[in-house]
């Protein structure tokens, strides 16, 4: 069976103030950490592929290593602006990048694949944005209004009930966008 692909960002494990800053519904730091781990592992199996778009942990390196060891999946890290602790444990990641252009087999597309730009930060335009390429980001914790005319989505946990989102879920969200290709025939 082919592994599933998931996207997520902005867990901020070990960061007590994020509960207040982002109005997260957790009673304590320990409650948040445990619930985020539980929700991750509810959706992600050991062989699944996870693209984490930054800000995994603000805890100390030993704490962060313990959390990372409890998370299922093969994790690819797209670095955010709070990555010091996670970078102290590089062997936990399949890859570590600042930016990534991912291609996924997609039989529904005329060329047979979907290209996705992965970056911690939201962009207004990106490589292929005028040709149906998606952009996934984090960093903003749901504070950026969604642009229904743009094929971009905040995959941060604050936007998805503190769960990672699957490729299939992202695909369904993108289908609801009102994006129109700027070139070619219009219906």
From TrEMBL:
<dbReference type="InterPro" id="IPR029052">
    <property type="entry name" value="Metallo-depent_PP-like"/>
</dbReference>
<comment type="similarity">
    <text>Belongs to the metallophosphoesterase superfamily. YfcE family.</text>
</comment>
<protein>
    <submittedName>
        <fullName>Calcineurin-like phosphoesterase family protein</fullName>
    </submittedName>
</protein>
<feature type="domain" description="Calcineurin-like phosphoesterase">
    <location>
        <begin position="31"/>
        <end position="142"/>
    </location>
</feature>
<dbReference type="InterPro" id="IPR024654">
    <property type="entry name" value="Calcineurin-like_PHP_lpxH"/>
</dbReference>
<dbReference type="Pfam" id="PF12850">
    <property type="entry name" value="Metallophos_2"/>
</dbReference>
């Amino acid at each position: 069976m082919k592994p599933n692909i998931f996207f997520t960002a902005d867990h901020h494990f070990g960061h007590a103030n994020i509960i207040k800053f982002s109005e997260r519904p957790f009673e304590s730091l320990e409650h948040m950490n445990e619930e985020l781990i539980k929700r991750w592992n509810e959706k992600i199996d050991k062989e699944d592929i996870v693209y984490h778009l930054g800000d995994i942990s603000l805890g100390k390196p030993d704490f962060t290593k313990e959390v990372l060891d409890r998370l299922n999946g093969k994790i690819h890290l797209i670095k955010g602006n709070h990555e010091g602790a996670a970078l102290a444990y590089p062997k936990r990641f399949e890859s570590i990048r600042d930016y990534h252009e991912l291609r996924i087999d997609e039989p529904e597309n005329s060329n047979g694949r979907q290209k996705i730009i992965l970056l911690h930060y939201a962009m207004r335009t990106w490589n292929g944005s005028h040709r149906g390429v998606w952009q996934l980001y984090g960093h903003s914790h749901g504070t950026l209004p969604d642009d229904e005319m743009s094929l971009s989505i905040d995959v941060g946990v604050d936007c998805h009930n503190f769960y990672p989102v699957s490729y299939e879920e992202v695909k369904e969200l993108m289908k609801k966008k009102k994006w129109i290709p700027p070139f070619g025939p219009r219906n």
